[in-house]
Amino acid sequence: MIRWIYLGIIRDKTRSLFPFLVVSAGVSLMIFFLGFMDGIFAGMVDITANLDTGHVRFVNRPFYEEEYLNPMDRALAGQKETGQWLKENADRRVSWSPRIRWGAIMDVPDPQGETLHQTPVVGMAMDLLSADSPELARLKLADSLLAGRLPEASHELLVGYQLAQTLELELGRPVTLLGQSFDGGLAADNYTVVGFVKFGVSAMDKKMALIDLADAQETFYMEDMVTDWLGYLPAEVGYMDYPEIQSRLQERLAGLLARPPAEWAADDEPMVLSILDQRNFSSLVRTFEAVKKIVIGIFLFLMTLVLWNAGLLNGIHRYGEMGLRLAMGETHRALVFRLGLEAFLIGVLGSLAGCLIGGAIVYYLQEVGINMGDAFAKTGLMLSDVTRGRLSLEGFVMGIVPGMTASVLGNLIASLAIFKRSEANLFRELEAG
Predict the structure, then answer these.
(1) Whole-angstrom Cα distance, residue 346 to residue 23?
(2) CB atoms within 10 A of CB 405
(3) DSSP sequence for 309-347
(4) Dihedrals phi, psi of 90, to nearest 5 degrees
(5) Most exposed: 366, 378, 404, 408, by fewest CB within 10 Å?
């Protein structure tokens, strides 16, 4: 029976071509929009995680509650012991990186050593000098350099290109950082500017500076201390899995708090956060999921409406065929069932074609991307200038299911008209045709 229906679909283009094209177009558009939306959101998650929050974050609660002040005295000591505990107890897919968030006054001297420019800056210290450091690739610093080079020696500094323009910085020029040390005193140290970086986020390009982790520990008197441990997960782990990974590590933290490292202060209280707990990301996720459901609902409704009308037109032209089949003894229910099966096969073929077309477009966006830096420049969101799509199994499923559902549903709604017409009228229309 299926073979007979399939041959009928292939040989009679008048009853299959238009529904096939509608399903193909609908599924390809659905996959494209979902892949594009997923790509934008995943890009926002990744750039925020890489530059700021990590996918999972291990931080001292007193520091986190006042992090806008960069309270160095609330940093977490015992870097080596803490790092070892995280590697042993966290999800094996998490890659941990220690960092120090710092704030300071950047003083730019003139040739006589007098202050020429001065401005507050925010900074991040990470492992920039180790040959096997994942931070360089994670932040894509080599690709982000607009001028100069990456740090190769101690006390070398990278700054955002807009900050460099504001301070009229030159490569190789010394600057002085004036900040607060771990013990509350004044910390002052000289650095050499070796590169200008475009982070792709306006606020960071105007105020951000990067230094090596060991240099920050020396400058701010923070030996074996960090303010943050940022954990990174591979791309195949979706953001909906982050809370579970966070909660499992939080449960194991009770054992560490019972026997904390000797270097920790008595009131240290580390906690585990996911990116969804920070920077208002949870509300963004809810909004994103709601938009996805609305998009799917709209496409399902429109495709069902179009295919319903197509089924009605198709049914009108096939009333004679219906009358003949009923006259030969086929029941109304069996006829509607076979029409539904025909629509299902058309939905399968159309969905396959839509997957190929939509998947190819999303794959191109994923690998090549499109530059939308001008469109996102004033949004204030952490978005990369190059927008990429994201090819995922979920996107194909969410494209195929509405496509096939709409095809069958539209055909079944149109087929209900058969129950309202007698075999005699349907057969008479065959004779008239």
Answers:
(1) 8
(2) 15
(3) HHHHHHHHHTHHHHHHHHHTT--HHHHHHHHHHHHHHHH
(4) -80, 170
(5) 378
User: Nearest Cα to 339, choosing from 390, 410, 242, 236?
Assistant: 410
- What CA–CA distance (Å, rounded) separates 233 from 241? 10
pTM of the model: 0.74
Give which of 135, 132, 131, 146 is closest to 100, Cα–Cα: 135
DSSP 32-82: HHHHHHHHHHHHHHHHHIIIII-SEEEEEHHHHHTGGG--GGG-B--HHHH
Secondary-structure percent of the chain, ordered helix, strand, coil, rounded to 5? 55, 20, 25
Report residue 135 as tokens: 């931070």
Other beta carbons within 10 angstroms of residue 130's beta carbon come to 12
The CB density around residue 78, as the number of other CB atoms within 10 Å, is: 18
Contact assessment for residue 136 and residue 150, using Cβ atoms and an 8 Å cutoff: yes
135-192 tens-digit pLDDT: 988 888 888 899 999 999 999 999 999 999 999 898 998 999 999 888 888 899 999 9
